[in-house]
Amino acid sequence: MKIEHILENLRGVKSFHDNTWNEIITELEKSNITTKGGGFADVITSPNWDYAYKIFQLDSAYTAYLKFCKNNQDNPHIPKIIKGPKQIHSFHKRSHLALNHLYVVKLEKLEEINHDNENIDIVEFVCDFAWEYLYRSN
Q: DSSP string covering the chain, please?
Protein backbone atom coordinates (compact mmCIF):
# COMPACT_ATOMS: atom_id res chain seq x y z
CA MET A 1 0.00 0.00 0.00
CA LYS A 2 1.38 3.39 -0.98
CA ILE A 3 0.10 5.77 1.68
CA GLU A 4 1.57 8.69 -0.27
CA HIS A 5 -0.81 7.94 -3.14
CA ILE A 6 -3.74 7.69 -0.79
CA LEU A 7 -3.06 10.90 1.10
CA GLU A 8 -1.81 13.02 -1.77
CA ASN A 9 -3.85 11.75 -4.69
CA LEU A 10 -6.73 9.77 -3.14
CA ARG A 11 -5.81 6.71 -5.18
CA GLY A 12 -6.74 3.33 -3.82
CA VAL A 13 -9.20 4.61 -1.24
CA LYS A 14 -12.15 2.45 -2.30
CA SER A 15 -10.64 -0.49 -0.43
CA PHE A 16 -11.01 1.50 2.82
CA HIS A 17 -14.67 2.53 2.56
CA ASP A 18 -15.76 -0.18 4.99
CA ASN A 19 -12.91 0.38 7.46
CA THR A 20 -12.96 2.68 10.45
CA TRP A 21 -10.06 5.07 10.95
CA ASN A 22 -8.64 2.80 13.70
CA GLU A 23 -8.76 -0.19 11.34
CA ILE A 24 -6.89 1.81 8.68
CA ILE A 25 -4.24 2.79 11.23
CA THR A 26 -3.84 -0.88 12.23
CA GLU A 27 -3.32 -1.84 8.58
CA LEU A 28 -0.74 0.91 8.11
CA GLU A 29 1.21 -0.24 11.15
CA LYS A 30 1.48 -3.73 9.61
CA SER A 31 3.31 -2.09 6.66
CA ASN A 32 6.16 -0.51 8.69
CA ILE A 33 4.25 2.77 8.96
CA THR A 34 4.41 4.54 12.30
CA THR A 35 1.35 6.34 13.60
CA LYS A 36 0.91 8.63 16.58
CA GLY A 37 -2.49 9.87 17.56
CA GLY A 38 -3.34 12.92 19.55
CA GLY A 39 -6.48 14.63 20.65
CA PHE A 40 -6.93 16.48 17.39
CA ALA A 41 -4.75 14.78 14.78
CA ASP A 42 -2.85 11.69 13.67
CA VAL A 43 0.74 11.68 12.45
CA ILE A 44 1.77 9.04 9.93
CA THR A 45 5.41 8.40 9.03
CA SER A 46 7.93 5.68 8.25
CA PRO A 47 11.51 5.10 9.34
CA ASN A 48 12.38 5.34 5.63
CA TRP A 49 10.89 8.84 5.20
CA ASP A 50 12.30 12.24 6.14
CA TYR A 51 8.76 13.62 6.28
CA ALA A 52 5.49 12.95 8.07
CA TYR A 53 1.81 13.39 7.25
CA LYS A 54 -0.42 15.06 9.79
CA ILE A 55 -4.12 14.35 9.31
CA PHE A 56 -6.70 16.43 11.11
CA GLN A 57 -10.30 17.55 10.98
CA LEU A 58 -11.18 21.20 10.63
CA ASP A 59 -9.28 23.03 13.35
CA SER A 60 -9.11 26.79 12.99
CA ALA A 61 -6.29 27.14 15.53
CA TYR A 62 -4.07 24.56 13.82
CA THR A 63 -4.92 25.99 10.39
CA ALA A 64 -3.83 29.45 11.64
CA TYR A 65 -0.64 27.90 13.00
CA LEU A 66 0.09 26.27 9.62
CA LYS A 67 -0.45 29.63 7.91
CA PHE A 68 2.01 31.18 10.36
CA CYS A 69 4.50 28.38 9.60
CA LYS A 70 4.12 28.86 5.84
CA ASN A 71 4.82 32.57 6.22
CA ASN A 72 7.93 31.90 8.33
CA GLN A 73 9.65 29.01 6.56
CA ASP A 74 13.02 30.76 6.84
CA ASN A 75 12.87 30.46 10.65
CA PRO A 76 14.85 27.35 11.71
CA HIS A 77 12.52 26.83 14.70
CA ILE A 78 9.38 26.48 12.57
CA PRO A 79 8.45 23.11 11.03
CA LYS A 80 9.00 23.00 7.27
CA ILE A 81 5.79 22.46 5.32
CA ILE A 82 6.46 20.31 2.28
CA LYS A 83 2.93 20.17 0.91
CA GLY A 84 -0.53 21.27 1.92
CA PRO A 85 -2.61 21.58 3.91
CA LYS A 86 -5.01 19.92 1.52
CA GLN A 87 -8.63 19.03 2.07
CA ILE A 88 -9.39 15.38 1.26
CA HIS A 89 -12.60 13.37 1.34
CA SER A 90 -13.12 11.26 4.47
CA PHE A 91 -12.78 7.96 2.65
CA HIS A 92 -13.29 5.72 5.69
CA LYS A 93 -16.35 4.45 7.56
CA ARG A 94 -17.37 7.06 10.12
CA SER A 95 -20.16 8.26 12.36
CA HIS A 96 -22.97 10.27 10.83
CA LEU A 97 -21.74 13.14 13.02
CA ALA A 98 -18.27 13.18 11.45
CA LEU A 99 -17.28 15.67 8.79
CA ASN A 100 -17.14 14.59 5.16
CA HIS A 101 -13.56 15.75 4.81
CA LEU A 102 -10.17 15.71 6.51
CA TYR A 103 -7.09 17.84 6.03
CA VAL A 104 -3.62 16.50 5.38
CA VAL A 105 -0.32 18.35 5.54
CA LYS A 106 3.10 16.93 4.66
CA LEU A 107 5.75 18.19 7.09
CA GLU A 108 9.41 17.62 7.74
CA LYS A 109 9.88 14.85 10.28
CA LEU A 110 10.65 16.35 13.68
CA GLU A 111 12.81 14.86 16.37
CA GLU A 112 10.77 13.53 19.25
CA ILE A 113 11.67 15.10 22.56
CA ASN A 114 11.79 12.69 25.46
CA HIS A 115 13.34 12.82 28.91
CA ASP A 116 16.67 11.54 27.57
CA ASN A 117 16.99 14.53 25.23
CA GLU A 118 19.66 17.03 26.23
CA ASN A 119 17.25 19.94 25.65
CA ILE A 120 14.39 18.67 27.80
CA ASP A 121 15.16 21.13 30.63
CA ILE A 122 14.86 24.07 28.22
CA VAL A 123 11.63 22.72 26.74
CA GLU A 124 10.11 22.19 30.19
CA PHE A 125 11.16 25.70 31.26
CA VAL A 126 9.54 27.29 28.19
CA CYS A 127 6.35 25.26 28.69
CA ASP A 128 6.16 26.22 32.37
CA PHE A 129 6.82 29.87 31.56
CA ALA A 130 4.16 29.87 28.82
CA TRP A 131 1.67 28.24 31.20
CA GLU A 132 2.31 30.86 33.87
CA TYR A 133 2.16 33.71 31.38
CA LEU A 134 -0.97 32.58 29.56
CA TYR A 135 -3.09 31.17 32.37
CA ARG A 136 -1.92 32.57 35.68
CA SER A 137 -1.32 36.21 34.80
CA ASN A 138 -4.99 36.88 33.95
A: --HHHHHHH--S-GGGTTS-HHHHHHHHHHTT-EEEE-SSEEEEE-TT-SEEEEEE---HHHHHHHHHHHHTTT-TTSPPEEEEEEEEE--S---TTS-SEEEEEEEEPPPPP-TTSTTHHHHHHHHHHHHIIIII--
Strand, helix or coil at 42?
strand
Q: Give the pLDDT confidence of 55-69 residue by residue, as tens digits.
A: 888 777 888 889 999
Q: What is the pTM of this model?
A: 0.68
Q: Which helix (H) or strand (E) holds 43?
A: strand 41-45
